[in-house]
Automatic annotation (TrEMBL):
Residues 203-234, 456-478 are annotated as: Disordered. InterPro entries: MFS (IPR011701), MFS_dom (IPR020846), MFS_trans_sf (IPR036259), Proton-linked_MCT (IPR050327). This is MOT6 protein. It is a multi-pass membrane protein. PROSITE patterns: MFS (PS50850). Residues 456-474 have a biased composition (Polar residues). Gene3D superfamilies: MFS general substrate transporter like domains. Its main location: membrane. Residues 20-447 form the Major facilitator superfamily (MFS) profile domain.
Amino acid sequence: MSRGGAAGRGTAKPQDQGWAWMVLLAAVVLQALTLGFPCCIGVFFTDLQHEFQASNSETSWFPSIMVAVLHGGGPLCSLLVKRFGCRFAVMLGGLLSGLGMVSSSFCKSISQLYLTAGLITGLGSCFSFQAGVTVLGYYFVRWQTLANAVASTGVSLGFTLWPLLSQYLLDEMGWRNTFLIFGGILLNCCVCGAIMRPLGSLPQPPKPGEEPGSRAEDAQLSNGASPPHTALQQDSRRTKCFQVLQKYLAFDIFCQNKGYQIYTIGVTWMMMGFALPHVYLVPYAIHNGVEERRAALLISVIGFINIFIRPCTGLLSGHRVFTGRRIYLFSLAVLLCGLSNFICVISAEFSVLIFYCVILSIAMSGVGALTFQVLMDVVEMDRFSSALGLFTILESITLLLGPPLTGLLVDITSDFRYVFYTSSFFLISAALFMGVSFCALEKKNKLREASKVPLNNPSRYQYSETPSDPQAESQPPPAVVYITSI
């Protein structure tokens, strides 16, 4: 106990001060490099179509795979973080991202891009991004909401700079050389990972229920010896496999925590339409006669406005007035995203599209600043990494399917307006589902309290936020996630 206490006191020092702000700066750059990068793919959409003679649906699989793997690799990232630490996960992600884009510059078919830029770069971005998000929950306690909002401005920076850089490089040297340069840029994730030094390490005690001879049995197995009671050991392995899946995919939280269940389903449904404007806005503008440089500027306008709005959204949502109501702010932002898409349907003139980008950017600021903060509100922090893994792998399924299916609809109808109709349907329905469901859940919890029906663990079975106890804030976060070997 004394060792744990000493280590705990050691890990409390960096919180909300000192090196924590350097980690936050690294997280901003990481999100600009990883989450901001897929937004520029629309700039290459037309060129890739012509290069590989591909349809809208076939071409859209490339960014869809990248974004889906970026979000869906969460469980594997959780394993890396728990075993090797955040620094290792971020740096490995940077290497994979760079390798994927360098390989993409030599691709001879669109299917090869699915593997290199889609799978390899997407997986590398996943490791860097999700490890960077998780570490903020341990470096910041009092200023956690602000830290998440500030970190999310990195996405805005990426949205602003990546399309402009992409269009410039594309005009100057073509898409192959541009992808080669992108590989070098993404290697900077390794620098960000080097900044995220471990908070400390603790000796790992034997797991509960582990028998003294189990380690010897493992050693015997590794040496190729055949232990007795093979059937019993196979059952034990199945049990351990189930426990690992439950630990890293948080199925137990999904089944027991109604708030997490509603939020995960709502965001998963939302993602079916959330990425559509990012993929198709530039092709839509070019299709309607907008110059390529001006079309690429549209994405940059979204990112530029996000830079200023996201921190304000984070500060606003962190105010005591919104304690227990962040999910409603999030639902309102999703609803505004869905409604804004109807502006594109009215007209495809450049001035109208600029106005659309302004409204969409304001709404996206709320979504981006609150997505992970609401998740931290509905689950315990010591299970956040696992909850994030299941959360992202479910939403990755809809992120993967949304753009290609919508692209198929565009190929059939030759009308890009269906992109925005589809996006609005999923966003509006998801916003209404989350808002109404959490409202009903809150009323149900109030009725339980009024009838004095006790809950075994209220923090796990209901959505609630209470003002933090200053003494609790000074305590160190659970050390189990960030026990590192580095």
